[in-house]
Structure formats: structure tokens, C-alpha cells
Amino acid sequence: MINAVNYAQAIEPSIGVDMTAVPESTQTEEVSKEYAFSHQTVINLAQTLSTSLMKPAEKAPQSLIDMDYPTYRKINFQQNQAVWGNTPTKFSVQLFAPGFLFKDLVSIDVVENGHAFPLNVSPDSFSTPNTEIGQLISLVGKYAGLRLHYPINRDDYNDEFVVFQGASYFRAVSKGQSYGLSARGLAMNVAQPKGEEFPMFKQFWIERPSSSQDAIVVHALLDSKSITGAYRFGIYPGKPTRIDVKATLFPREDIEHIGIAPLTSMFMHNSALDASDVLDYRPAVHDSDGLQILTGKNEMLWRPLNNPKTLEVSAFSDASPKGFGLIQRQRSFEDYQDLEASYHTRPSAWIKPINDWGAGHVELVEIPSNAETNDNIVAYWQPKEGLKKGQSYSYQYLMTWSNDTPVSLDLPRVVRSAKGVKLFTTRPEVVIDYNKMPDVNVDDLTIDASISNGKILEAIAVKNPHNNGVRVYVSFDPQDASLAELRVQLKQGDSAVAPTWLYRWIKE
């Protein structure tokens, strides 16, 4: 059985635990001298690692691992220890101590003037419940991750806006947003019988930006049983925050199921397509409500998300895709009515390939979940032929952490999807609302609606003055099918005038 991944509390900034002896393998060695560094350094390391078996990451001492979450939260990085915190650069770096869920130790080096040197851990690096814990963390000498700070909301305060912590997970926010969905370096064997493999960023290098720079560069070395990789993240904070990613991959073996540029999110319910199984005063609970894809042929697709009863995997075949992302479209508090979670401020994430990704498909995995602390939605690009041992692969893409899809901003969008039954019948019906169509004549529109099982009964379009758009009603007969794929395209003549709406109808 595949369980939803619990990552919601995985990047809280804290730590703590009872003191025990530090395993010899985790004790800090003498500080290495600085060394010449460029991104090629990381590529060479990844390529060399790929020729031998993976060595497991060093683990934190058991006493740190055994900490409970409340204790872990009491360990905080000292503000006065922030890297570049007292320098003219606009960026500062804070670090996470190992412990609790974060067992794997990470090395972090700083790059200045083309030379790198390791960041040291001292007993003063973290505020801790007692001196023994501080000494233990200092003896370990490594970290569990890092976070970047920059004044994205106001000039006099450095906001945390990017976090790298746990396996190859990272996430970001733009101005006015709060953390929501996450990204990963790679996804391996998601929803496969042999179980998922979680690659890890084992080492980071952070380039020091000049005082005039509004961007920062982070390099990362990825390691896993099946693959190694060298990553370069060019990070641009603001409105919106953007991350320019370059990944060079070296498979240790032939890989059939691999996810490039994976996004991980949460969808519990909304009141229109997927009602809650339990009473909930909130009309919607989700970090993302739809998957959007811009295909290589310039067709825009919109697929509402589900919280299914059983595992659901969907594949959207394409060649040379132009973009995909998990989108949080509803941006009003009234859509969620949640004072604590603030789902209306959570970001969307859009992936724009920079080089040609060839043939493959965008894969969407929807995992049954009964808790909003579980990440149960995964989306990524799956290359058609997988990856082959002994070859290298390069994927470049731009991630944009915006409020909505940052492409075709002036064109119509699907702003709401709903399902029910057609009035005075027992036939299922779906309703699709498109905005930004104030002057369209609905008599000029045609609806190209199809269903994989059963038949379409009726498809009509009417003006929707409440959003300056159009509402489409589609009723259908699934006949004896338990599952059917719906596809609805709104056209004017031979041209699509709005995103193609896709939906997996499942018999309840």
C-alpha cells in the first residue's frame, strides 16, 4: 500500500534531545583548507560517484534522532551566526541542525571568489535546551539543511524564502505568500510496486553574492542508489520568486521510472468536485487544486485534482513540453475559510523547460489521504525511454513560484469546475467556468466534448456575467463504466479559445 508522504512539518526551524556519545564516524575532522570551485567541480564529483555503489549518508547520533518534535523545535539557529548576516549582501543563510526526522547529515560549503571552504559548527551555532545538546551538535559537525533569507516583503526585514531540507526536497515563496507545495531534485519509482527511492542532496555549496546582487546561486550534489546528479540553482527572490535549475544526471543503472522536476502537494477536498468525507466547516482544503500543462503543440490543458479512494496515476503524453505545474487558483480567504493555514496565500509552481526534453509524458499521481498534513499529489516529467546507465543527461528548467500560471496571463482560464446531476435526471453532469471572455458571442462557440467510456448526452455554453466569462455544462452517460476520462475543448471555428479541460470521473 502506498501512503501519502508526510512533509508538512518537515521544515519547521528547530531541534533538541538527550545527550549520548557521538558515533566516531560522525565526529568532525579538522577543517579542510579552501579549494578552487566551479559548477564543474560538482559535475565531476557526481560522475565519479556514479561509477561505484552508493555509500549511505552519515547519520545523526541516535540521541538526536530519538528527539520528539516539541524538543526538536527548541533548537534554533542563532541569528547572530547567520552566514553573511553582518555584511552588505542582501542575502543571509541559516542552517538546520540534525535530529528528529532529519537523520541524514549534510555538508555545506561556502564559495567566495572562486574558492570553497566548509562551514563549521560551534557550540554557539544553535540555541538549545541545554549545553550538552549544543556540544553534541558541534561534535557532529554537519547539518540537516539550509534556508535562505532576503527582504522580499519589506526592506527592513530578511524573510525566509527558500528551504532545502530532507532528501532532495526544497520549497520557496514569493512576496505575500506562505509555504505550501514542495519541489524535489528527482522522483524515483513513484507508485511502483518495488517502492519509491528517495535521492538525497548530500552536499551544498553556496556562492556569496555581492552587495549589489539580487540573486544567489546554490549548488548541490545528489546521490541515490540508482543515480547521481549535479545541480545548480540560480535563485531570484521577489514577486514572483524564480529558480533557474540545471541538473546533470549520471545513472548507476538503467532507470525506467524517473520523475524530472517533480512537484509534491496536498489536495484534500473542495466543495465543487470532491466533497469531504467528514464534516468540515471549510469549503476547500488544498495546497494546489489543478495540474496545468502547456504542451509542445501549444495546447493548454487543465486537470482538476482529486483525493481518490484508491491510488490513481494519469499520464499526459507529449513531446518537447513547454511547461507544467501544480496551481493554486483560488486566491480568496472565502474560498477556504481557514484562519491558520491561509491556503489562499500558498504558491503555485510552474516548470518551464529550457532545453529540449524530448518525448515522454507528464505523470500525475493522486494518493488517497485522510489528513491535510500528508502530501498526496505528485507531478513530474517522465522521459519516454527512461535513463540509461553509462550516459549523462542534462535538464534545464525555470521554476516560478507565482500565484497562478505565469504564462498566457491575458487569456481565458478555467476558474472553477463542479460536478453533480443534470436537473430532473439522474445523469451526471460537470460544469466548467472560464473567465476573461467578456465580449464573446456564445453562439459562435462550439464545444468539443468526448468521454472514454459511455457517451456525451449534451454540451451547452452560456454567458457568465459574474466572472466576465462563459459557463459550459456537459452531461453524460457512463453506462456501466466505473471510470471515464472526460475531455472538453471550447472552440471558435477551428481554434481553441480556452484551456482544454480534462477530468477523471470515478463512480462513487
Automatic annotation (TrEMBL):
Entry's Gene Ontology cellular component terms: outer membrane-bounded periplasmic space
Domain Glucan biosynthesis periplasmic MdoG C-terminal: 37-505
Pathway(s) of this molecule: Glycan metabolism; osmoregulated periplasmic glucan (OPG) biosynthesis
Keyword Signal: yes
SUPFAM superfamilies: E set domains, Galactose mutarotase-like
Main subcellular localisation: periplasm
Gene3D superfamilies for the chain: 2.70.98.10, Immunoglobulins
GO biological-process terms attached to the record: beta-glucan biosynthetic process
Pfam families from the UniProt entry: MdoG
Keywords: Periplasm, Signal
Subcellular location(s) of the protein: Periplasm
Family named by the database record: Belongs to the OpgD/OpgG family.
PANTHER family: GLUCANS BIOSYNTHESIS PROTEIN (PTHR30504), GLUCANS BIOSYNTHESIS PROTEIN G (PTHR30504:SF2)
Protein's name in the database: Glucan biosynthesis protein G
Species, as recorded: Marinomonas profundi
